[in-house]
Each structure stands twice: as structure tokens, then as C-alpha cells.
Specification:
Radius of gyration: 17 Å
Strand order of the largest sheet: 3-2-1-4-5-6-9
Strand content: 15-25%
Largest sheet: 7 strands, parallel
Number of domains: 1
CATH topology: Rossmann fold
């Protein structure tokens, strides 16, 4: 019997990186999980790897039609849930002067609009005393060049967390954010990054992070589960998991 045996969770963007690590951590502790993704290869890999307590669903976080369908699927597969991790995200780096309307719309469509309406549609399915965890970013309070659209999209999510935390408080639902720094994933979270760019990004992270290393997806996942289940007197907060990058 794991710590989360009998618990039910939803993780968006759960087929890779931080999302997949969170799904695996939940499953390892006995939870039943519905996870979403868009990439066909990632979806098939998850179906083959994760086992019968994982419900793998193709869903585009930027599509309100898909979000409506997701809510129906969650209700059908899980009924009420204990935790929703709003993790699906999109990042394409580019200097302010070169950001196109299409790139801006894609960034805000996934990170902001998608996160907002995912929470809106799934909130009725979260049981009293449950929790939301939104994955934001260290970028939402920093001024890193090349991250204007991405940082703005995540800062908006940080604001959502405070308001939703207030609005869902009468149901005892806690709403918190998880703010990762540089984290070891296949692309370090950057859409379309080449292996050379990922390697350079890792070196940069090791240099600027006070702990002189980048984090692992498992470390971020453990923080997500802490906010989801253990931090029972915490709501409206943002927990940095960034090796001190935003704090020191």
C-alpha cells in the first residue's frame, strides 16, 4: 500500500519531462492517474510503460474543445479526483523584437488560456479537500532575455493561483504553484531545441544556479506531490524548486 493508494489525479502534459516524472511518482505510491499529451510517440510510449492505473489521453491544452472532452473523460474514468497538476506548457525562446503574433498566441494559448480553462472545467470534479498544482517557472519573476512571452504567460498563471485559491477555499480545495528552475529533461522545456542548444542551456544552468547544478525531473515531481498532498496548510503560494536561483 503506497502513500497515495486510493487517490486519483490528473496530470496534463504527462508524457514527458516533469509531467511524466510526476505521473510515475504518483503511480509508484498507489494512485490512479489520468495523464494527457499531444505527441503520438509519447502517448504510445506512456501506454506501453505505465500500466493499468494510468489512463493516457490525447488532449491539446490550447483547444477548448479538447478541454471539454477531457473533463468528460476524467469524470468517466475517475469520477472525483484528489489532485490536478496543470503542467502542460510551451516555451520558444526569442528576443522581444522578433516574437511573432503566432508564437505569442501559441505561448499564451497553451500556458495561460489552456491552464485557466483546464482548471475551470476540472474544478467541479475535484473533491472537497483536494488540490490544484500549477507548474509556473522561475521566469515569471525574472528578466531573462529571450523569455518575454513565456515569462508573461507564466506570470499570469501565478496570478490565477492566488485568485483561484481564494475562490475555491470554501470547498477546502488548495491551489498552489510550483516554480522550477533549470531542470534536466530531454529539451529542458524549450520547444524545438537542438541537442547542442540543450547542452549549452544545461551549462548555463549549472553556472547561474547557486547550487551549481540543474535539477532533476524527479526532484520537481516530489515537490508537486508535496504541494498536492502534504502541504495541507498552504494555499495561494508558489514554491521555488530552482536550486536557489530566484532566492539567493
Amino acid at each position: 500500500m503506497g502513500r497515495y493508494s486510493g487517490k486519483k489525479a490528473v496530470v496534463t502534459g504527462g508524457t514527458a519531462g516533469i509531467g511524466l516524472a510526476t505521473v510515475k511518482a504518483l503511480l509508484a505510491e498507489g494512485a490512479e492517474v489520468l495523464l494527457t499529451g499531444r505527441n503520438a510517440r509519447g502517448l504510445e510510449a506512456a501506454r506501453g510503460e505505465l500500466g493499468p492505473r494510468a489512463h493516457v489521453v490525447r488532449s491539446d491544452t490550447a483547444s477548448l474543445t479538447d478541454i471539454d472532452a477531457l473533463a468528460s473523460r476524467v469524470k468517466e474514468a475517475l469520477g472525483e479526483v484528489d489532485l490536478v497538476v496543470v503542467n502542460a506548457g510551451y516555451a520558444k525562446l526569442g528576443m522581444f523584437a522578433g516574437v511573432t503574433e503566432a508564437e505569442y498566441d501559441q505561448t499564451f494559448g497553451v500556458n495561460t488560456k489552456g491552464a485557466f480553462f483546464t482548471a475551470q472545467k476540472l474544478a467541479p470534479l475535484v473533491r472537497e479537500g483536494g488540490a490544484f498544482v500549477f507548474v509556473t517557472s522561475v521566469a515569471d519573476e525574472s528578466g531573462y532575455p529571450g523569455m518575454s512571452a513565456y515569462a508573461g504567460s507564466k506570470a499570469a498563471v501565478r496570478a490565477f493561483v492566488r485568485v483561484l485559491g481564494s475562490e475555491l477555499l470554501p470547498r477546502g480545495i488548495r491551489v498552489n504553484a510550483l516554480s522550477p528552475g533549470y531542470t534536466k529533461t530531454p529539451t529542458l522545456g524549450v520547444h524545438g531545441a537542438t541537442p547542442e542548444e540543450v547542452a549549452a542551456f544545461e551549462q548555463e544552468g549549472e553556472h547561474v544556479t547557486p547550487m551549481k547544478r540543474i535539477g532533476s525531473a524527479d526532484e520537481v515531481a516530489r515537490a508537486a506531490l508535496f504541494l498536492g498532498f502534504e502541504a495541507t496548510f498552504t494555499t495561494g503560494a508558489e514554491l521555488p524548486v530552482d536550486g536557489g536561483l530566484s532566492q539567493l
